[in-house]
Amino acid sequence: MGRLVYAAIASLDGYVRDADGSFAWAEPPEEVHAFVNERERAVGTHLYGRGMYETMAVWETEPALAEASPVMAEYAELWRAADKVVYSTTLDSVATERTRLERTFDAGAVARLKEEAPADLAVAGPTLAAEAFRAGLVDELQLYVVPVVVGGGLPALPDGVRLGLELLEERRFAGGFVFLRYAARR
Fold first, then answer.
1. Alpha helix segments (H runs only) across 96-163
2. Over its length of 186 residues, how does the chain's per-residue pLDDT go in tens digits?
3. Which of 142, 46, 136, 139 is nearest to 87 (CA)?
4. Which of 71, 74, 102, 183 is a plausible cystine mate for 166, CB 3.0–4.6 Å?
5. What residue numbers bound the domain in which 136 lies?
6. Which of 19, 14, 59 is nearest to 149 (CA)?
């Protein structure tokens, strides 16, 4: 059985995008990116909404990105090797391998996917993750906190969800990034 993990890079004040829609401030330094790669090894399937899928698809559609560094090449390889499920009512098709399109988020289907999965699943993007949180499907949160306050934007965590957490791991990186890993308490 796989766990459903929500991972996000967020500002200290809790946003994944600022009020202008930018997340340029969230680019992880190489040390953090290498750490992310280690976490990605456990993921067999990514769950995305349209926006996050379009952001992440460049790991397959833009080969120059992987050529930027060995760490980025490794991430591109990990991303391409995983299955992807994209939830969208507006996309006509998907442009990457190992990817299927679903029109609606079905909590029961995701629960079955978790039960049958030989590896962990990752839900990315706070809008889709909010549905998974509300359905009680998220088993673990992994937050990469960026040493910046952006003052508003798209929140990393959903409003209206109360969830007890158990701190499993914390790590500080040079430059001020902090990794926090929590298990969801049911």
1. 107-116, 126-134
2. 999 999 999 999 999 999 999 999 999 999 999 999 999 999 999 999 999 999 999 999 998 988 999 999 999 999 999 999 999 999 999 999 999 999 999 999 999 999 999 999 999 999 999 999 999 999 999 999 999 999 999 999 999 999 999 999 999 999 999 999 999 998
3. 46
4. 183
5. 4-185
6. 14
Neighbours of 107 (CB within 10 A): 13
Residues with Cβ within 8 Å of 119's Cβ and at least 6 positions away in sequence, in order, are: 2, 42, 43, 44, 45
Sheet holding 164-172: strands in order across?
A: 99-102, 83-87, 43-49, 120-124, 4-11, 140-146, 178-185, 164-172
What is the C-alpha to C-alpha distance for residues 75 and 7, in angstroms, rounded to an integer? 15
CATH number at residue 150: 3.40.430.10
Q: How many domains does the chain have?
A: 1
Strands 153-155 and 15-18 come out as antiparallel
Q: How far is CA 71 from CA 24, 48, 80, 176, in A?
A: 18, 23, 14, 20
Distant-in-sequence, close-in-space partners of 41: CB < 8 Å, separation ≥ 6: 78
